[in-house]
């Protein structure tokens, strides 16, 4: 590019921005990349590490989900089931999420040291329990720990601000901006475009490090931009992404955030509402045009609502496409308060629906998950090579300055000797 062109004059500024943006987010992206590569296979790895938690001890027809939930709450009267599968894969345990009930004497939640329980679906016997997301490297906690680390870094929530969510959301925004700066810097001129795609493997050393960073980023640029955009959505969807998208397209209310809280349910009301909603879930789904069977139920007793997910046994993540349909229901009346049905709604609604499937790679099934796992490793590699390049150039910049200082010192010494002997 000729020296007088605006792009050339802008290049030093872009280089500085890329340097400082990259250094500022390198550690975050390194952690997010490595953990993301692992949690693309969270179910499979968790099952391999903890077979007794995920695989049922006995064979036989599973008990009804409602009976399993009732047995669990009878055994643990201070816990309420907040999510449960309505069907179980053959040979697998029935795994429920629980939350503490409120102690009527103190108006505070009862202390619980677990939030996930696995039962043998044929007998109702407990096979394991854990605190999902606990900061622990124990085998039972390892995959949930990595999942939580990926999204929150275990940063605290203070004064109503979730610092983990905001940190990773801001990192995503800086990363997105830096991605566009990087692609401009990668192609300084039309004549040198081949260099921006090549890897000098035989040269090795710094040349290969530089090519891994520059050319690796170019080859994967599209995937990196997708992951950056979706990482913003995963963390700051309500705060940033939905307001931006709503400028260009009408959005339906978020069914999981827009429901106004109703009167809290008592334990007896929760049990009765759960039984009624489970019995009516299939018919309610058909009225909404959903063909899949009811697959999961979540409860928010404090808000007086239940949610029903529609999918086959074991497909709670959604193996392909835009995910599973969900309905949010009034616990007392069964009225549909909100819904999210993949593929339905405005262009903006479908864009929002696509964010988690794109971020996880599940939108195209197994190939997508492989691509996302590889991209996570590449993000970690780009972070490391970026820092190495900066260190190399920083040392090179310091060397002339050091030599200049030494030359000045030597000249000063000579002058001093000359005056002394003069």
UniProtKB/TrEMBL annotation:
InterPro entries: PepSY-ass_TM. Residues 403-412 have a biased composition (Low complexity). Signal peptide: none annotated. It holds the Pfam family PepSY_TM. Residues 400-422 are annotated as: Disordered. Keywords: Membrane, Transmembrane, Transmembrane helix. Coiled coil: none annotated. The keyword Membrane applies. The chain crosses the membrane at residues 20-41, 163-187, 218-238, 370-391. It comes from the Bacteria. This is Iron-regulated membrane protein. It comes from Paraburkholderia unamae.
């Amino acid at each position: 590019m000729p020296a007088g062109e605006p792009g050339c004059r802008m290049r030093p500024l872009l280089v500085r921005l890329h340097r400082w943006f990259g250094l500022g987010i390198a550690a975050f992206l390194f952690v997010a990349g490595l953990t993301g590569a692992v949690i693309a296979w969270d179910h499979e790895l968790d099952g391999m590490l903890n077979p007794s938690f995920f695989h049922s001890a006995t064979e036989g027809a599973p008990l009804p989900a409602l009976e399993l939930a009732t047995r669990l709450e009878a055994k643990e009267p201070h816990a309420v089931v907040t999510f449960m599968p309505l069907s179980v894969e053959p040979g697998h345990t029935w795994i429920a999420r629980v939350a503490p009930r409120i102690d009527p004497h103190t108006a505070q939640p009862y202390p619980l040291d677990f939030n996930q329980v696995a039962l043998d679906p044929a007998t109702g016997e407990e096979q394991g329990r854990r605190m999902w997301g606990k900061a622990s490297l124990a085998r039972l906690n390892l995959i949930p720990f990595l999942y939580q680390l990926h999204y929150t870094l275990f940063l605290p929530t203070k004064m109503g601000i979730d610092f983990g969510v905001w940190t990773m959301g801001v990192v995503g925004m800086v990363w997105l901006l830096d991605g566009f700066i990087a692609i401009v810097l990668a192609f300084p001129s039309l004549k040198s475009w081949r260099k921006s795609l090549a890897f000098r493997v035989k040269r090795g050393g710094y040349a290969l490090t530089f090519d891994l960073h520059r050319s690796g980023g170019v080859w994967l640029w599209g995937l990196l931009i997708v992951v950056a955009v979706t990482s913003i959505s995963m963390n700051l969807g309500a705060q940033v992404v939905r307001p931006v998208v709503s400028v260009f397209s009408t959005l339906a209310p978020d069914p999981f955030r827009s429901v106004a809280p109703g009167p809290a349910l008592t334990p007896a009301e929760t049990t009765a509402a759960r039984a009624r909603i489970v019995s009516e879930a299939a018919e309610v789904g058909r009225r909404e045009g959903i063909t899949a069977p009811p697959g999961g139920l979540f409860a928010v007793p404090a808000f007086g609502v239940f949610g029903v997910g529609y999918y086959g046994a074991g497909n709670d993540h959604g193996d392909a496409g835009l995910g599973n349909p969900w309905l949010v229901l009034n616990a007392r009346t069964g009225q549909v308060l909100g819904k999210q049905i993949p593929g339905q709604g405005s262009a903006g609604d479908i864009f929002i629906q696509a964010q988690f499937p794109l971020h996880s790679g599940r939108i195209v099934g197994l190939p997508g998950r492989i691509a996302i796992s590889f991209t996570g490793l590449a993000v970690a590699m780009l972070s490391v090579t970026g820092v190495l390049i900066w260190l190399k150039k920083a040392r090179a910049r310091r060397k002339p300055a050091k030599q200049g200082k030494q030359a000045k010192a030597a000249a000063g010494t000579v002058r001093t000797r000359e005056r002394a002997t003069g």
